[in-house]
Amino acid sequence: MEYAHHRSIVCNIGYHMVWSTKYRRPVLTGWVERGLKNLLPKIAKRYDFQIKYLEIMPDHVHVFVTSHPQHAPSKLYKAMKGISGKLLFKHYPHLRHYLWGGKLWNPSTFVETIGHISEQTVKKYIEDQKS
After folding, report:
1. How far is the CA of 38 from the CAs of 4, 35, 59, 92, 123, in angstroms?
2. Mean pLDDT of the chain
């Protein structure tokens, strides 16, 4: 079991998060996919949480994150979606052709809490997404 040790707390808090592109457009491929895989860990570091597992499908993202309990899950996915959407449009302007209106992500997000027992199940599920 992997516990996070902070100044006055020991915890094991994990979230499985899934979100999709606007209109479920399959634009997360090639350079855009690689750019997003590079960008999300940087966002996590900036906001002080860890990405344990990540898989990017053409029209949606699966991520398993762990964080300090002071961070609400909504703060984590809003940071990932907001910053990545803005920067991906900046670096890959052709996305605007497929996603008019200036939004990369669908506003909906799926979030579930994960304990140590089911972490392996979630890891396998995320890793098997491309198979």
Report:
1. 24, 5, 17, 14, 19
2. 92
What pLDDT digit, counting tens, does each position of 105-123 carry?
999 999 999 876 677 888 8
As a whole number of angstroms, the distance between CA 58 and CA 52 comes to 20
List active site positions. 125
Contact indicator for 52, 123 with CB cutoff of 8 Å: yes
Paired tokens of 53: 């597992």
Tokens of 69: 């309990």
d(CA 52, CA 100): 32
Tokens of 74: 């909504």
Quote the CA–CA distance of 73 and 131 in Å, as a whole number.
28
